[in-house]
Amino acid sequence: MRILAIETSCDETGVAVVDDGRHIISNVVASQLAHQDTGGIVPEVAAREHLRSLDAITQTALREAGVELRGVDAVAATVGPGLIGCLLVGANYARGLALSAGLPFVGVNHLEGHVYANWLYEGVVAPREPELPAIVLVVSGAHSDLVLMEAHRRFRPLGRTIDDAAGEAFDKVARLLGLGFPGGPLIEKAAKSGDPNAFPLPRATVSDRYDFSFSGLKTAVQRLVRSLEAKGEVPVNDVAASFQKAITETLAEKTARAAAEHAVDTVLLGGGVAANLALREEIAKRIGRPLVVPPPRLCTDNGAMIGAAAFFVLRHRGTEIPTTVRSDLKLA
Ligand code: KG4
Ligand code: ZN
């Protein structure tokens, strides 16, 4: 089954053609640059940018796949969670395409997309599918969810952030350090030449065993930066490395503990923050085996992950996907 899939929930316009939920035939991603000047995403600007570029990106994705619209079996789009105006642009466009070509429309939960990015491959030989059950950590700009994936599309929530999402913490600390937006990759780069033990930072302990809290860490970094500024120049790389160590250790500790408690062999990661190599290494170290994770470009938002999830929506029952867009959709 060949699916044309559209992702517009935030600031990436992504369109892909994916076969049988796994094989990427084409995957075009345009990251909006308009937000770099504002240092964060302005929802109306993001929606307008999607509207401006979506049709051309869809044509490119079809051309790169060497197919026409009537050559696909279904059209999929993210219906939530995300910025409502952005979701509306993508979902309405996809619905229109499906209607015009007499194809089924498949609504997809963006967070299921991040999970199913772990099923994707690009080459000619299909790697083995991840085995279930699995512990999945989805860490993005708006979400930090730790779930037990019992079977396809069956997610049992274990924990989530009670305040900032992990990606949001990366973005806010990057702004404090004057590094730019989006912050995650810039922190990771700065941390490479910094000392992760330069500054002790708090690891939040949340009473509920698998929930996360990152606002205290962010405040601690803010205080640290202010006091360093008062003394002279801020050692940006050392602060970035110390912050990255604190946040990755917290995420990795709970992920590894959940895998041990549920006696699960498979650990999957998804979402933009999963692109972070320090996080991948820390988790692999704690579970004592190499991780199977999507390559960084499939961790951040893209159309292919929506094409993968759409296939499994058609194949397996699970949490119902609403027919209209919903900004607050949950994974489980
Ligand atoms: O999944 P995603 O592309 O969009 C959302 O669904 O939110 O995630 C974006 C988030 C941003 O906060 C960005 O700073 C973070 O992922 N991110 C990273 C890295 N690459 C992207 N965080 C840490 N390290 C990275 N290499
Ligand atoms: Zn995302």
Provide key terms for this protein.
alpha/beta, 332 residues, five-stranded mixed beta sheet, binds 5'-O-[(R)-(carboxyoxy)(hydroxy)phosphoryl]adenosine, Nucleotidyltransferase, domain 5, binds zinc ion
Describe the model.
It is built from ten helices and nine strands. Helix 5 (183-192) crosses helix 7 (236-261), helix 6 (215-231) packs antiparallel against helix 7 (236-261) and helix 7 (236-261) packs parallel to helix 8. The radius of gyration is 20 Å and the shape is globular. It is 42% helix and 18% strand. By secondary structure, the chain is of the alpha/beta class. The strands form two sheets. It has a five-stranded mixed β-sheet with strand order 3-2-1-4-5, sandwiched between helices. Strands 8-7-6-9 form a four-stranded mixed β-sheet, sandwiched between helices. The model has no long low-confidence stretch (mean pLDDT 95). It has two domains: 2-128 and 296-315, ATPase, nucleotide binding domain (Nucleotidyltransferase, domain 5, 2-Layer Sandwich), CATH 3.30.420; 134-287, 2-Layer Sandwich (Nucleotidyltransferase, domain 5). The protein binds 5'-O-[(R)-(carboxyoxy)(hydroxy)phosphoryl]adenosine and zinc ion. Zinc ion is lined by residues 110, 114, 140, 271, 301.
